[in-house]
Specification:
The protein is an alpha/beta fold and 389 residues long. The protein is built from 9 helices and 14 strands. The strands form 4 sheets. Strands 1-9-8-7-4-2-3 form a 7-stranded mixed beta sheet, with helices on both faces. Strands 12-13-14 form a 3-stranded antiparallel beta sheet. A two-stranded antiparallel ribbon has the order 5-6. Helix 3 links the parallel strand 2 and strand 3. Helix 8 crosses helix 9.
């Protein structure tokens, strides 16, 4: 039986819930970038200082240890991850966790493109993590801290042993600045500007522990590398990368935007405040989800449920009667209805994920906007079901 749901009257102040690029910080305006040094060489002293400032402010907010290196690299988080995989892997066996689209892509690259003979892929369906107890930490281990397309994250620092022989290589792009990262248990960490702080795209960040640097400098090149992947020269780390001397030409407009986001994070209280804002967003959705009868979290375990990429799956007796292609079509129609009403933009689930919704809950999203969007989800579901008959 279909139930009428009254059309809400209040729209979110900002309906942008995309999981990347993500919402800009509250109060952002284009004139926040008016001081960007456009038309200048990125190697000039004052422009180079801005690149170094991104590195320094990022380190400070994240609480990165002083002996880690942090650099700005090309091609967003993807570029940062690929640089790590192609530059570091091959001297040890590898375990790679694959539990959503991007981590599955890293597994493909390791097994099919790099062709590493001793590589194990530990897989799980959307909504779950692989068996963490099955990881062999004497091997190099590649994993995402947070599955952007599945809404599943690692349960905490205890997931990684304090002592491990291999390198822990962590794609943290939708976790950095929203979740605690155990720097003492990681060796490589990557992220991008367009996630939790809402920066513009195309630039990545690559952080290396002393153990990772030692691997780079002690191991001969195992394979030819294109220029944008090279982290060493004549057996030594290219230190300039980690002082803001980028491999390729960065966008100074994007750099200015990244600085704007970092300065905002500092103003509101740094990492604890960023985490609290994201957790408040998850709590708002959790309170609503507990009352809904047509949707459930894709990640059923609260201990591994993401507060940034909040993924919901469609469910219910009626929905289960639909054929798989009808279910996918229903999900797309639901997201389109929310878009047409300007209630929630870019809220559809990822193309490879089960039909449902994905709402970004990172720190730049106001909890009040999510709360305003939730009645629209109920209304849009009722309208979409009516259209399906």
């Amino acid at each position: 039986m279909m139930i009428d749901v009254e059309r809400p009257t209040r729209l979110p102040g900002n309906p942008r819930f995309s999981s990347g690029p993500c919402a800009k910080r509250p109060g952002w305006r284009l004139d926040a970038l008016s001081a960007a040094p456009l038309g200048r060489s990125h190697r000039a002293p004052d422009t180079a200082a801005r690149l170094a400032e991104v590195i320094d402010r990022s380190r400070a907010i994240l609480g990165m240890p002083a002996d880690w290196r942090l650099g700005i690299v090309p091609a967003s988080d993807t570029g940062a991850v690929e640089m790590a995989l192609w530059s570091l892997l091959g001297t040890r066996p590898v375990d790679v966790l694959a539990f959503e689209s991007f981590s599955a892509a890293w597994a493909h690259d390791i097994t099919a493109e790099l062709g590493l003979a001793d590589a194990r892929v530990l897989s799980a369906d959307y909504g779950a993590l692989p068996d963490l107890a099955a990881i062999d930490w004497s091997r190099d281990v590649v994993f995402a801290w947070n599955g952007t397309t599945s809404g599943v994250c690692l349960p905490g620092a205890h997931a990684i042993p304090a002592c491990h022989d291999g390198l822990a290589i962590c794609d943290a792009t939708s976790a950095a600045f929203a979740m605690e990262l155990p720097w003492d248990r990681l060796d490589v960490v990557t992220w991008s500007w367009q996630k939790v702080l809402g920066g513009e795209a195309a630039h990545g960040m690559l952080a290396l522990s002393p153990r990772a640097v030692e691997r780079l400098e002690s191991t001969p090149h195992l394979r030819p590398l294109p220029k944008i992947f090279r982290l060493t020269q004549k057996g030594r780390l290219i230190e300039g990368i980690f002082r803001g001397d980028t491999i390729n030409t960065p966008s100074m407009l994007c750099v200015e935007d990244a600085l704007d986001g970092l300065r905002w994070a500092e103003r509101i209280g740094g990492l604890p405040a960023l985490i609290a804002r994201s957790q408040a967003n998850l709590a708002a959705i959790a309170a609503w989800e507990a009352t809904a009868d047509w949707v459930r979290f894709l990640a059923p375990d609260p201990a591994t449920r993401s507060s940034t990429s909040i993924c919901l799956r469609l469910c219910g007796d009626w929905f289960e009667t639909l054929a798989p292609d009808q279910r996918a079509g229903f999900g797309k129609s639901l997201a389109r209805t929310l878009h047409d009403e300007a209630a929630a933009l870019d809220a559809g689930s990822y193309r490879d994920a089960p039909p449902g919704l994905r709402l970004w809950g990172g720190a730049t999203v106001e909890t009040a906007d999510l709360q305003a969007a939730l009645p629209w989800l109920d209304w849009a579901f009722a309208e979409t079901r009516r259209a399906f008959g």
